[in-house]
Amino acid sequence: MLDRVLPLDVLGMIFVLAQWPSLARVSRAFYAASQSAGVRARYCLAEFGRGRVLDGALGLPARRPRMTRPDVVLLLLRLGADPRADDQWVLRHACDRAGPWTPIVRTVLHMRHQGLRHQGPNRMPIDLDPVSGWRGIGNTDVTSPGPLLIDVHDGDDLALRIAAGRGHTAIVNILLDAGADAEALRGEPLALAAANAHADTVRALLGRGADAGAEHSRALRSAVLCGDANTDSVTALLDAGACVHAVDDSCLLAASYAGDGSALAPGSPPPDASRAALLAYATTDLPMHLPRPVPAAASFMRRYGRPTPRLPATHVRLVRLLIERGADPNACQGRPLAYACARGSVRTAAVLLAYDADPRARDDEPLRDAAERGHVDVMRLLLRAGASVHADDDAPLVNAARGGHIAAVHLLLAHGADASSPAGVRALCAAARGGWPTLVLVLIAAGADSTNPEFIACAQRSRPVRAALQM
């Protein structure tokens, strides 16, 4: 194959070299030497130059990504590479990765301008402090140390926001020691740490002066979205003064809306509505160790966007914590319970009812919403807590029939819903419009008026209903 594509003189050289017994050993030695940080750093420095080698778009990271290793970058900095390239790319990247990149953060934050008496065209006015024995390139005469090269506030403290969002507590402390603002962008670092369930970072920021109540307790509202996996962060924020009632109890509203978050088998509701029984029911078989939320991507802050954590299994314990810390279970005219019931979160509904949420708020809205979506377990819980099947002119029966939920209709009829009332006719018409023949027969057997002209008109438009009634 090679003899067809290579010239004869090259083939001859390959043949001669192949006769050398030490060729394999020497090749391995050259390959091992090429992997060293010193060789790679000097090669990249010669290829890109000191001013561009650490440019994220034009230098080493873009053109030689496999060479972008912490040891190589650290040596490049010691050889005079400019850390300010591409808006301080090296600092942002180190804050994003942490681990072996942490010493690089310390290094670039100590780099200073130097006053030089003799500065040639190839000499960089950069020095490392407190690294001893290095004074730039060539034989320079340093007169006095200058200001720091790196602006830790660049991009509205972007480096701090990246480290906080990624949960790199050690780097967060380093940046704060260097003068970074924990209140950048009205508390963005704290909100990012809380939104990604980094409790240690949250506590570190709070201990360095971050305001837990900034922007109407924005960090707390972000932390609640992560659910029970973020209970430590929520507790730290509440202890630091975050307001549990911020923005009309939006924390409890969000947690109630997220609810159980997974298809955990709820079992049968307790026979009594006492607080102890409801709380025991809500926490039965509830996982103790929940997965941490996962940020959208490792480089999410490069697009100046927000992380989008994956929701964990449940918000049940978080709902209980918020209520015990003062949140109102009847906030916004009973919206927390209505949200939980509409989404079928029976465990969350049990916690809210245990702390005296009103099941009859807004004309039994929780029962109406649960019936419309066929959440039978939630309906059973509400009925035992005192909800009425006759609320809003028997609207629960009509809502259940509209969705074709036969089990919900059976439950409502067993608790006294009147199929022979005008609401029964409306439910019958709704079932006929939806094409639910079995449900139509159930309602007629329960006493609904099948001779109503409106029902007959609806039934004639549905072939399954016509076949079931032999019309």
What is the mean pLDDT?
84
CATH superfamily of the domain at 244-297 and 306-388: Ankyrin repeat-containing domain
Strand arrangement, major sheet: 2-1-3
The description of the largest β-sheet is: 3 strands, antiparallel
3D shape? elongated
- CATH class of the domain at 244-297 and 306-388, named Mainly Alpha
Poorly predicted segments:
115-144, 294-311
The run of helices and strands is HHHHHHHHEEEHHHHHHHHHHHHHHHHHHH
Pfam families: Ank_2 (PF12796)
Protein name: Ankyrin
Keywords: ANK repeat, Repeat
ANK repeats: 155-187, 189-217, 362-394, 392-424
Notes on the structure:
The protein has 471 residues and is mostly helical. Among the domains are: 1-34, no CATH class; 244-297 and 306-388, Serine Threonine Protein Phosphatase 5, Tetratricopeptide repeat, CATH 1.25.40.20; 395-471, Serine Threonine Protein Phosphatase 5, Tetratricopeptide repeat (Alpha Horseshoe), CATH 1.25.40. The protein contains 27 helices and three strands. Strands 2-1-3 form a three-stranded antiparallel beta sheet. It is elongated. The termini are far apart. This is Ankyrin.
